[in-house]
Design goal:
- The complex is a heterodimer.
- By secondary structure, chain A is α+β, with helices and mostly antiparallel strands.
- Chain A has a domain of about 150 residues: Butyryl-CoA Dehydrogenase, subunit A, domain 3 (Up-down Bundle).
- Chain A has eleven helices and nine strands.
- In chain A, strands 1-3-4-7 form a four-stranded mixed beta sheet. A three-stranded antiparallel beta sheet of chain A has the order 2-6-5, with no helix packed on it. A two-stranded antiparallel ribbon of chain A has the order 8-9.
- Chain B is mostly helical.
- Chain B has one domain.
- In chain B, α2 runs antiparallel to α3.
- The longest helix of chain B is centred in the middle third of the chain and has 20 residues.
- Chain B is rod-shaped.
- Classes of the chains: A alpha+beta, B mainly alpha.
- The interface between A and B is medium-sized, with 29 and 26 residues.
């Protein structure tokens, strides 16, 4: 059994990383904030041309048909560079819906445009103005509506990269609304996918937040040496590094389970997200502490990533929901835990 | 009899207080640094974190969207500063170790 990533997966990730490194810099993110347009249409087009947005879309719809573990690596990098465009949502939510349901695939003609997905775990609509359609998931039904028929109120998130709209009503005259019933298992699948997606983003963010702190503590001098040479600072960052390593293992496992329709996929996803939340909390707090008061300023880039973490910690399953879910599963005696069952 | 009750009460209350000093857990109500600045600094983050966890998906909003939802994100942001300003937690711990416990500098 080989648990390492294949060469192809790593090449694809590294190529994408290179693109993000030069095209999604903190300066570019900030200029999007200043123009009040975090969604950059040109960048969305580039992601399109790179094949990122269709990476896991079925080949019959013009995608690359890659597995979700590879997508997970890409989304982790999106988190690392705090990509403002909702490419992660496109891959893990709308592409998944198109792949799994022929009815939805037929209703969505423009598969390269952003399609928003809402659910009670993520009720605010992301980038309404930049999306063509909105898919709303209820407990066992799915409704699809054209974005321009939605009447909503803009909301102000603490993360300026998130353009949120509060759903008020839909313009029913145009009759663009389509509803599919009896979709409980698909809805469940998308919720699981949302957990894995947000976990991947959180892991990427945590890595970046820790990298920023490590660089800063080596640079900043106090008492004649870098503050990173003091044990109190070293231990703080080492704790965060350990949490992040643990969250990677659970994350890739959850992505693998999701891709292979493992009956325990939701439990694995919940574990991954819970661990990612812990990692991100630890990384955020400790990096801020290691930065001293400097991290608190607008000029330092740290807050770009920390704010994003605050949002993704709550959407698609927050801590108390995940803990409840895991506890219920343990009580049901469903999951077989322990080393004997790890590789089943 | 009254003295006896009082003794029992004191014994019990001591017992409760010692339970109150569980450290490093989410439910810990006392912080591990029992100095004026350090204590406030570690309780505030826990309190605001709890508020955000209760608010869930609305917690990231900087405005009040419904009557039953408050905005806590600014308070949460502020909680990041407590462990830093007027001497970081690490400085407070150094002071406690060196001045109270007499450990070498």
């Amino acid at each position: 059994m080989n648990f390492t990533f294949s060469e192809d997966q790593e090449i694809f990730r590294d190529a994408f990383k290179k693109y993000l490194e030069s095209n999604v810099t903190p300066e570019k993110i900030r200029s999007g904030w200043e123009d009040n347009m975090p969604f950059n249409q040109a960048r969305w087009q580039e992601l399109q041309e790179l094949g990122i947005l269709q990476s896991n879309l079925d080949e019959k719809y013009g995608g690359l048909g890659l597995d979700l573990v590879t997508s997970c690596l890409l989304v982790e990098e999106m988190g690392y560079y705090a990509l403002p465009e909702p490419a992660a949502e496109q891959i893990f939510l709308s592409n998944l819906l198109i792949n799994k349901s022929i009815d939805i695939a037929e209703l969505i003609e423009e598969k390269n445009q952003f399609i928003g997905v809402t659910h009670s775990l993520s009720p605010n609509i992301l980038f309404l103005d930049n999306s063509s359609k909105l898919i709303n998931l209820e407990e066992d039904s799915i409704s699809i509506v054209s974005s321009k028929d939605i009447i909503g109120k803009k909301l102000k998130s603490s993360d300026p990269s998130r353009d949120l709209t509060n759903f008020i009503s839909e313009n029913s005259d145009s009759g663009s609304l389509q509803t599919l019933n009896d979709q409980k298992s698909l809805v469940n699948n998308v919720v699981t996918s949302g957990m894995v997606m947000s976990a991947a983003i959180l892991v990427g963010l945590s890595r970046k937040i820790l990298d920023l702190a490590t660089a800063y503590t080596l640079d900043r001098k106090q008492f004649g040496k870098p503050v990173g040479s003091f044990q109190a600072v070293k231990h703080m960052l080492a704790h965060a590094a350990i949490e992040i390593e643990f969250s990677k293992a659970t994350l890739y496992r959850a992505a693998y389970s999701l891709d292979n329709d493992n009956p325990l996929q939701k439990l694995h996803a919940a574990q991954a997200k819970l661990q990612a939340i812990d990692a991100c909390e630890m990384a955020s707090r400790n990096s801020m502490q290691a930065h001293g008061a400097m991290g608190y300023t607008w000029e330092m880039d740290l807050h770009i990533f920390i704010r994003r973490g605050w949002s993704y910690k709550q959407v698609w399953g927050n801590k108390s929901l995940l803990e409840n879910y895991i506890m219920n599963q343990l009580e049901k005696d469903l999951p077989k835990l322990g080393s004997t069952y790890t590789f089943l | 009899m009254r003295l006896f009750t009082l003794t029992i009460f004191l014994f019990l209350s001591n017992h409760i207080i010692s339970y109150d000093r569980i450290l490093g857990k989410d439910f810990a109500t006392r912080s591990e640094v029992i100095a004026t600045n350090g204590m406030a600094a570690t309780s505030h983050p826990l309190a605001t974190q709890t508020a955000l966890d209760i608010l869930g998906v609305s917690s990231e909003l900087e405005e009040v969207v419904a009557d039953d939802v408050a905005s806590w994100i600014k308070g949460y942001m502020f909680s990041y500063s407590g462990p830093i300003y007027a001497g970081t937690n690490e400085i407070q711990k150094n002071i406690i170790a060196e001045r109270l416990l007499g450990m070498p500098r």
